[in-house]
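Quick one: structure tokens for this chain, please?
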Amino acid sequence: MNTERSLDFQITFEQRVAKMYQQIGEQFPSKKLSINKKDNLWKNLARDERKHVAILKIEKSFLKTGTRITKSVEISPESQEKIETMLSKYEAKIYNGINESEAIQVLSHLEDCDEEFFLPLLKATDSKLLSQFPKYSKSFQLHERRVQKSLRHYENLGRRKTDHKPREGKTDV
């Protein structure tokens, strides 16, 4: 798969991820999701992914107007199949209902996969605008902070639960 096909694949990936985040957001209204008391994390993440789609479509249009590919980015057929399988699995899981722990696991896996191809694709052309997008885009940086904060917060919740186990030999009576 050449860089242009990888770009098309990544656009589709981002669209599917946005839809999944939106669906999780509908399952967990902000007042019910413990990691998300002030705003709806999932709807914000869905919006961020739609922005990723837009920037990749801009890159695709740049290629049609003379921007050159300077670094080839190829998604192997094996990786593509693995990603497709993962997406289908998560789409079915979300459709059938997902708990908070599973939702965080989906977030972690999708963002890892996204990072593996999204950033290299932005740096694949001679466009300074696109290659510097992650470094200077406040929206992109906010997305990264939102994801990392959510993952850390959920890890801390898990630790707190284990920290409060009763100690041996002590009773409430």
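The mean pLDDT is 81.
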